């Protein structure tokens, strides 16, 4: 898949894969920095991956995003999504989806160095 293919995808597809990439990053971070058992690892991971936390992470990195990355955030944030989890308000969910969209876009366009930089900054 080349960048043109990725650019033609729905921003919600970026968010779909970004959700998995971010959760895997968090899980790796937790097993490398703690000695917790699986259930406690899960509890800790939720603190990072819930919508409110992701919305806060996006706000934290907004000032260091490139113009292209801000465009990706805007496109994903404005994508029409009819799903709202029971544990998130609509604003947090919209910004969390935008965060996941950015992560997914960077992953799909193979911008691993930038992805690592932003995720390390978030943690």
Q: If you had to describe this structure to a student in words, what would you say it looks like?
A:
- This protein has 123 residues and is mostly helical.
- The chain has a single domain (3-122), classed as Orthogonal Bundle (Ribonuclease iii, N-terminal Endonuclease Domain, Chain A), CATH 1.10.1520.10.
- 76% of the residues lie in helices and 0% in strands.
- Helix 2 crosses helix 6.
Q: Provide mean pLDDT, rounded.
A: 93
Oligomer: single chain
Number of helices: 7
- What is the name of the CATH superfamily? Ribonuclease III domain
Short description:
The chain has 123 residues and is mostly helical. It is 76% helix and 0% strand. The protein has a single domain, classed as Orthogonal Bundle (Ribonuclease iii, N-terminal Endonuclease Domain, Chain A).
Question: What's the layout of helices and strands?
Answer:
Blueprint: H1 3-8, H2 11-33, H3 38-49, H4 51-61, H5 67-77, H6 90-108, H7 112-122
Characteristic terms for this protein:
mainly alpha; 7 helices; Ribonuclease iii, N-terminal Endonuclease Domain, Chain A; about 120 residues; single chain
């Amino acid at each position: 898949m080349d960048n043109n293919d990725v650019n033609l995808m729905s921003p919600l597809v970026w968010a779909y894969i970004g959700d998995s990439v971010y959760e895997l990053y968090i899980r790796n971070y937790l097993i490398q920095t703690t000695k917790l058992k699986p259930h406690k690892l899960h509890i800790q991971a939720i603190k990072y991956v819930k919508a409110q936390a992701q919305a806060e992470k996006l706000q934290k990195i907004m000032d260091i995003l490139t113009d292209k990355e801000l465009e990706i955030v805007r496109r994903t944030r404005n994508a029409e999504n009819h799903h709202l989890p029971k544990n998130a308000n609509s604003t947090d969910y919209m910004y969390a989806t935008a965060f996941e969209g950015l992560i997914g876009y960077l992953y799909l366009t193979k911008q691993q160095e930038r992805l690592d930089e932003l995720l390390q900054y978030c943690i």
